[in-house]
Amino acid sequence: MLNRAVLLGRLTKDPEMRYTPSGTAVTTFTLAIDRRMTNQQGERETDFLPIVVWSKLAELCAQYLKKGQQAAVEGRIQVRNVRP
């Protein structure tokens, strides 16, 4: 099976970096991606996708990416079930 995605959008806020107890860097941010099609009112809808980046790339994302900046993300889709 193939699980590969390429996303292009804008950051909704500055990335947040933290470290796991073992010392691995983890950076999270949300990417806002406009849909190609418009809705019935003629407006474009936007999807907000949470992005998680690990290790050295996490440190680079936290250092160079900022709110509103356009970013391309290549990776795999993973759905997490969040319980209230």
From TrEMBL:
Name assigned to this protein: Single-stranded DNA-binding protein
Organism: Aneurinibacillus aneurinilyticus ATCC 12856
Keyword DNA-binding recorded: yes
A Pfam family recorded for this sequence: SSB
GO molecular function terms attached to this record: single-stranded DNA binding
PANTHER family in UniProt: SINGLE-STRANDED DNA-BINDING PROTEIN
Lineage: Bacteria, Bacillati, Bacillota, Bacilli, Bacillales
Residues making up the signal peptide according to the UniProt record: none
InterPro entries with a match to the protein in the record: NA-bd_OB-fold (IPR012340), Primosome_PriB/ssb (IPR000424), ssDNA-bd (IPR011344)
Quaternary structure, from the entry: Homotetramer.
HAMAP family named among the record's database cross-references: SSB
Keyword DNA-binding: yes
Gene3D superfamilies: Nucleic acid-binding proteins (2.40.50.140)
